[in-house]
């Protein structure tokens, strides 16, 4: 039993209802909730003074906070976490929302990248937040790899996959590379392939280099590691993140502190910092996960919440993720089924295109 669950069970019915009403009202309006407002909505008829005492107790427990003297209460991050874990009522997906998401598919919707871009735009439009879509890496077996010298500090690595897909990327090679070391690096990798995917090749490559270091020229070894790592590094991962609807985060925000929070979030999204962690957030299992405020490793400075779900291929392997980021007062009950449905939709699409 978690500390939050134990705390909730120790609360009486009146405290639980007051807490739930405060959180629900705050999520709907974004405004502090006062005791007089609650007296009109509680199932039990009690005085405003009694409600104030209950709210003070909840504040003492760290579940509510007073933003201003004599103002109403708002939930703390700890309070939101307990509400989401124990009291949140997730709605059914609304027909209109489903239809808008389904409409992004269209008749044979073209390439996966373009479709995921449209899914991100639709998800942002439906939720009125910023959407994040992490696209899958191409994991077909590799047929051939080649390095092309473009100058003293630029090289091109070309991957040809067994399914005909071709990818190429310009990168900075280790210092001192020669045409000979590039050929040796490519020959080493082509001999090692044997129908492996990129991630399988990278794993085997590191093992082979460590056991055959004496046989491989040092320059070629550095070239091998740099050439394959270009698909695995931060730049590659960030290029796989589609962000749509950032302007939605500005709607209705006027206070300087809120605008500063949004500005920090924009900076994070521009840099796409630590985006590799975005997928890691989802890899503990299926289903939607909610990260509130400082729990969110990606955007902890922004005071935002992230609702995220992985999607899987036909082999039930997690290959990407979709999510919505917004203020901590997101309408979680509505957002959760939307993100869940979008993840299932994308997974089905990927599986059908295999």
From TrEMBL:
<dbReference type="Pfam" id="PF01628">
    <property type="entry name" value="HrcA"/>
</dbReference>
<comment type="function">
    <text>Negative regulator of class I heat shock genes (grpE-dnaK-dnaJ and groELS operons). Prevents heat-shock induction of these operons.</text>
</comment>
<protein>
    <recommendedName>
        <fullName>Heat-inducible transcription repressor HrcA</fullName>
    </recommendedName>
</protein>
<dbReference type="InterPro" id="IPR036388">
    <property type="entry name" value="WH-like_DNA-bd_sf"/>
</dbReference>
<dbReference type="InterPro" id="IPR002571">
    <property type="entry name" value="HrcA"/>
</dbReference>
<keyword id="KW-0804">Transcription</keyword>
<comment type="similarity">
    <text>Belongs to the HrcA family.</text>
</comment>
<dbReference type="GO" id="GO:0045892">
    <property type="term" value="P:negative regulation of DNA-templated transcription"/>
</dbReference>
<dbReference type="InterPro" id="IPR029016">
    <property type="entry name" value="GAF-like_dom_sf"/>
</dbReference>
<keyword id="KW-0346">Stress response</keyword>
<dbReference type="InterPro" id="IPR036390">
    <property type="entry name" value="WH_DNA-bd_sf"/>
</dbReference>
<dbReference type="InterPro" id="IPR021153">
    <property type="entry name" value="HrcA_C"/>
</dbReference>
<dbReference type="InterPro" id="IPR023120">
    <property type="entry name" value="WHTH_transcript_rep_HrcA_IDD"/>
</dbReference>
<keyword id="KW-0805">Transcription regulation</keyword>
<feature type="domain" description="Heat-inducible transcription repressor HrcA C-terminal">
    <location>
        <begin position="115"/>
        <end position="336"/>
    </location>
</feature>
<dbReference type="InterPro" id="IPR005104">
    <property type="entry name" value="WHTH_HrcA_DNA-bd"/>
</dbReference>
<keyword id="KW-0678">Repressor</keyword>
<dbReference type="Pfam" id="PF03444">
    <property type="entry name" value="WHD_HrcA"/>
</dbReference>
<feature type="domain" description="Winged helix-turn-helix transcription repressor HrcA DNA-binding">
    <location>
        <begin position="13"/>
        <end position="78"/>
    </location>
</feature>
<dbReference type="GO" id="GO:0003677">
    <property type="term" value="F:DNA binding"/>
</dbReference>
């Amino acid at each position: 039993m978690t500390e939050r669950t134990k705390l909730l069970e120790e609360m009486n019915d009146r405290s639980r209802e007051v807490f739930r009403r405060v959180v629900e009202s705050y999520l709907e309006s974004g405004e502090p909730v006062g005791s007089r407002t609650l007296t009109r909505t509680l199932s039990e008829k009690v005085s405003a003074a009694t409600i104030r005492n209950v709210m003070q107790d909840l504040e003492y427990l760290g579940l509510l906070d007073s933003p201003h003297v004599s103002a109403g209460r708002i939930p703390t991050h700890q309070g939101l976490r307990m509400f989401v874990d124990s009291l949140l009522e997730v709605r059914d997906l609304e027909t209109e929302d489903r239809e808008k998401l389904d409409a992004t598919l269209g008749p044979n919707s073209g390439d996966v990248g373009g479709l995921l871009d449209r899914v991100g735009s639709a998800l942002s439009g439906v939720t009125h937040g910023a959407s994040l879509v992490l696209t899958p890496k191409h994991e077909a077996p590799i047929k051939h790899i080649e390095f092309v010298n473009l100058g003293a500090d630029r090289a091109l690595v070309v991957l040809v996959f067994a399914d005909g897909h071709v990818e190429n990327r310009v990168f900075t090679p280790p210092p001192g590379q020669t045409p000979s070391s590039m050929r040796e690096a490519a020959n080493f990798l082509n001999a090692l392939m044997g129908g492996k995917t990129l991630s399988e090749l990278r794993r085997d490559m590191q093992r082979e280099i460590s056991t055959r270091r004496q046989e491989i020229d040092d320059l070629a070894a550095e070239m091998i590691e740099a050439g394959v790592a270009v698909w695995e590094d931060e730049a590659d991962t960030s290029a796989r993140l589609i962000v749509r609807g950032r302007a939605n985060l500005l709607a209705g925000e006027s206070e300087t502190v809120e605008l500063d929070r949004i500005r920090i979030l924009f900076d994070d999204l521009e840099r796409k910092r630590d985006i590799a962690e975005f997928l890691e957030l989802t890899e503990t299992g299926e289903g939607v996960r909610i990260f509130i405020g400082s729990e969110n490793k990606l955007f902890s400075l922004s005071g935002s919440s992230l609702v995220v779900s992985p999607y899987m291929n036909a082999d039930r392997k997690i290959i990407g993720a979709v999510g919505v980021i917004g203020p901590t007062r997101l309408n979680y009950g509505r957002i959760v089924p939307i993100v869940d449905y979008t993840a299932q939709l994308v997974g089905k699409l990927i599986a059908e295109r295999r």
